Amino acid sequence: MLEITELQISLLLKEGHMASASIGQGLTALRKAHNGNKGAYYEGFLLITSGIERLMKLIFINEYRGKNGSFPNNDDLKKLGHKISDLYSEVITYIDGKEEIILDPIQKEIVTFLTDFAVGSRYYNLDILTNRKVKYSDPLVQWSEIREKIKGKHIKSINNNETIASMMENVVIIGLYSENNELINTPLDYLNSLDNNDILQGYSVYYIHGILQNLYSVLNYIESKYHLYPYLTEFFDFYRKGTFKNYKIRSKRKWIKY
Description:
This protein is mainly alpha-helical. It has helices spanning 6-31, 38-68, 74-80, 84-91, 105-119, 124-129, 139-154, 162-168, 187-194, 197-226, 246-251, and strands at 176-177, 183-184. A two-stranded antiparallel sheet has the order 1-2. Strand 1 and strand 2 form a beta hairpin.
C-alpha cells in the first residue's frame, strides 16, 4: 500500500463527502423539478456538475497516485480544466474493457449539456438580460430537447386533460412560462405541460445514474488495482451497477444518504 499521511487521508475523505453530497442533492432536486418548480432544475444542474467534476478529479488523483506513488501537483490538476466531457474522456482511459462503459446517444447529449452548463450556460439568463453575446443555448430549452428524446423513446401514452381543464377554467388563473419560454395561461396548456413529468424526471435521473455507474466502475477499478486507501467508492455506492434495479432508479426520489 502506498504511503499516505493522515492529513491527505482526511482531505480525500472530505472531498469524497463533498462530491457525494453534491451529486446526491443534485439528483434529488432534479427528480422533483417541473415547469412550476424551475429552481429545482438549476439546483440540480449546479450540484450535479460540481459533484461529477469533483468525482472525476478524485479519479484522476487516484490514478496518478497508483502510477507514480505520489500526489499530482496543482498544475497537473489545472491542465484537466472544467469541461465534463473532456474529464470523462480522460478518466475512462484508466480502465480496461472501455467498451463496457460506452455512453448511449442520450447520455452523450447529457454529458454535452452538463459540460455547457458547467462552463457557461448557467449564467445564460443574466448574460442575455445584459446583452452579452453567448455561444450557449438556454439550459432549460436545451434540457427540454433532451426530455423530448427521452419521451419519444420511453413514453407512448397520451393523457386526456380536456375534462379536468374544463373544470378548472372558471376557477383558476394561470400565468407562467414553459421551459421553452412560451407563455402558459390556460388550464389545458398547464396540464399538458405537466404530462408525464414524473416519469420523465425519473428517466432523467436514470440516464445520469448510468453515467455515474461508469465513473464508479473506473474508481473501483483503480482502487482495487493499486490497493489504494482510503476507499472513496464507499461514498458513491448508490451508483454501483446492480445496487438498484432499473425501475427503482427511476422511482427513487431521494439520493441523499444522511
